[in-house]
Design a protein that fits this description.
Length: 126
C-alpha cells in the first residue's frame, strides 16, 4: 500500500520512502516478511519521469546433497524506476503484477508531479 505522509511531503511504500522536501530517499527491504530494513537515506536527484519496464531475472538454486548440481530458473518482473536529469535511474520497486506496478507508478508520478513512461506497452507491441 502506498501512502503520502506529513502533509504530502513524504511518500512511503513497502519498497521505498521518499522525502521530497529534504530531497532524499531510502530503499526498504522486507526481512522475513515482518521487518523493514534500509541502507539509510540517499540524496534524491532531480527526477524527470517515472518509468515502467519488464525485465527477465535469473535465480540459481544449488543442491547441497548433490554437489555441483544446480538449476537456474528465469522469471519476469515489472520494475518501476525514477529517471533523473543525468539519465540515471533509481529503482523504486519490483512487481510480479503489471496492474500493481502501474498503480505504484501513478502514485509516485502524482507525488513527484512528473510524467510516466510505460515501456511495457512498447514491448508488447513487438
Amino acid at each position: 500500500m502506498n501512502e503520502v505522509l506529513d502533509n504530502h511531503q513524504v511518500f512511503k511504500s513497502a519498497q521505498i520512502k521518499i522525502d521530497k522536501t529534504k530531497k532524499r530517499y531510502k530503499k526498504l527491504f522486507s526481512f522475513l516478511f515482518v521487518f523493514s530494513l534500509s541502507e539509510g537515506w540517499k540524496h534524491l536527484p532531480e527526477i524527470t519521469s517515472v518509468s515502467i519496464t519488464s525485465r527477465k531475472m535469473n535465480q540459481t538454486f544449488n543442491s547441497v546433497r548433490a554437489m555441483g548440481n544446480s538449476s537456474t530458473v528465469q522469471f519476469g518482473v515489472i520494475v518501476v524506476y525514477l529517471m533523473t536529469t543525468s539519465k540515471q535511474k533509481v529503482e523504486a520497486g519490483r512487481f510480479e503484477n503489471i496492474k500493481k506496478a502501474q498503480k505504484f507508478a501513478n502514485d509516485l508520478a502524482s507525488y513527484l508531479t512528473v510524467d510516466i513512461i510505460d515501456y511495457t506497452k512498447r514491448e508488447e507491441g513487438n
